[in-house]
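S.,

Sequence below, as promised.
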Amino acid sequence: MAERPIFVPAPDSPELVKELSMRLTWHPGFAPSQKKKNIISLHESAARAGYAPLLEVSTKSEEKVGQRLSAFNLMVQSEQIGRLQLEKAFQGSKVFERGGPYTDLYTVEDVRDAKRDLRLRESGPLKGFKFENLWFPLEPKTAFYDWLYITALYEHREWLRRHIFQYAGFTDIEFNPERSINCQARSCALLVTLMRNDWLDAAVSSPGAFIRLLASHDYRPDHSQRVQEEMFQR
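The prediction came back faster than expected:
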């Protein structure tokens, strides 16, 4: 058995997104067939708890919309270099105590090379994020990742209304809250909350407006202090 979270939009709640842990039968292994079994197991567990249907938001999703919403397939706009993959923008914008942002990571060929760059682990504690001329602090947690995700999808908002409002929540089978903080399924749930409350336009008007909105609510992504300490060293 294992536990994995589902992320439920909560437009009427101060927390904006409910993060609910579900127990499931875990099928170990890296084969796509094993990941599919885990997705099915997680969704079945959530359905028993009253949360259905769910959308897997990752490249492992059986639904094309879930694949399209994967952060690995989303592009963000840079005034300097044009469009770049969200994950490259995230990694290359990190500012550490002893270096960064390492903007050369914006243009690496393979996004996995950006995530594995040794400078991200050897530059001391993470202090914040700088993308273009925009500065993001470490609080609220996940704000910069959420900002990249939501602004990348902003131009598709009308399409999204027709395709994701039907889901009770979102999952990412690769996300393990014991090892990570940011999650594309959480960001997707937050996007739905902003859209349902007609807050999206105001939220994406500026980083300051986005951070103030999150800070004025009880948007507190769940993760242990141990995970925070480990991730801030990356």
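The beta strands are 2-10, 16-24, 54-56, 75-78, 82-85, 94-96, 126-131, 134-136, 169-171.

Coffee later?
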